[in-house]
Design a protein that fits this description.
By secondary structure, this protein is mainly beta. The protein has a single domain, classed as Immunoglobulin-like, CATH 2.60.40. 15% of the residues lie in helices and 40% in strands. It is built from one helix and eight strands. The strands form two sheets. Strands 3, 4, 6, 7 and 8 form a five-stranded antiparallel beta sheet that branches. A hairpin with a 6-residue loop joins strand 3 and strand 4. The chain is elongated, with a radius of gyration of 20 Å.
Length: 121
């Protein structure tokens, strides 16, 4: 009897872990891996971002920026999957910006990439 109870407990524990959904949405997809290695350089006076795409299941990337020190990121672009760069031609001159990138799919959003700061001339 003890073996049956122990086996049933393992089955129920496995179902709780597998059936709870976790970070999955209703279709079973998981959030993609976060981008990494975000860097920024000035190109023609505008911030040019590059990063490493660590996911093979993202649908798009959200490129976010904030005026450094304000603490409020906003999305400046949403780009299709499998890109690893973005050129921000909407940045204002003479401004310090902080950027980050997030991978997204039906399962949710990744953690944000590292943050990078750059000043426009």
């Amino acid at each position: 009897m003890r073996t049956i109870r122990f086996g049933l407990a393992l089955v129920l524990a496995g179902c709780v872990a597998a059936c709870s959904g976790g970070d999955d949405d209703d279709d079973g997809a998981s959030a993609p891996a976060a981008p990494s290695g975000l860097t920024a350089a000035l190109m023609s006076g505008d911030p040019h971002l590059t990063w490493t795409d660590n996911a093979d299941d993202e649908d798009e990337f959200s490129i976010e920026r904030m005026v450094t020190g304000t603490g409020a990121f906003t999305e400046v672009a949403s780009e299709t999957f499998d890109i690893e760069q973005y050129h921000d031609m909407s940045a204002a001159a003479g401004t310090d910006y902080t950027y980050r990138v997030i991978a997204m799919n039906a399962g949710g959003d990744s953690a944000p990439s590292n943050e990078i700061q750059i000043s426009t001339p």
